[in-house]
Write a structure and sequence with these properties.
Layout: E1 10-20, E2 31-35, E3 38-52, E4 55-70, H1 76-82, E5 85-87, E6 93-95, E7 104-112, E8 117-125
Antiparallel strand pairs: 1-2, 1-7, 3-4, 5-6, 7-8
């Protein structure tokens, strides 16, 4: 391997952190979401053409990114922050479908060959809880 490239090689991902984005578009201190089991994103382009008469007057193009992030377990605090759960009086949590999910900044640890940790940041993510799996 060439010497110049060995310092930039990624050897894996570590933990994922999240921060709620406020109305001004900024966020505070990130909180730990958990260790990353797997992470994938899929970008796609969506184009809409609006016609008036016999000609295109507006061409609207947007890039849409969807993805999956798998972590081992979610703490109650994370469920409340990201997925519309509320803490109950007895210490448990209950789902409230009226609560809007917030915009979130995700920060992913990337471990490099030279033992330096970089952070990949995704802004304005809206999380959706997929499925809960586990052994009983």
């Amino acid at each position: 391997m060439a010497k110049g490239y060995e310092k930039s090689i990624s050897t894996g991902v570590g933990k994922c952190y999240y921060a709620i984005i406020d109305e001004s578009g900024t966020y505070g201190n990130p909180k730990e979401l958990g260790d990353i089991i797997s992470f994938e994103i899929t970008p796609s382009e969506s184009t809409n053409t609006f016609w008036a008469g016999d000609r295109a007057v507006i061409v609207d193009s947007a890039i849409v990114v969807s993805g999956n992030l798998v972590v081992p377990a979610l703490k109650n605090e994370v469920l409340c922050d990201l997925f519309g759960y509320k803490k109950s009086q007895d210490g448990g949590i209950i789902y409230d479908k009226k609560v809007a999910r917030p915009n979130v900044a995700l920060l992913l640890e990337q471990h490099n060959y030279n033992e330096v940790t970089d952070y990949i940041t995704l802004y304005k993510v809206r999380m959706q809880l997929g499925g809960k799996t586990g052994n009983t």
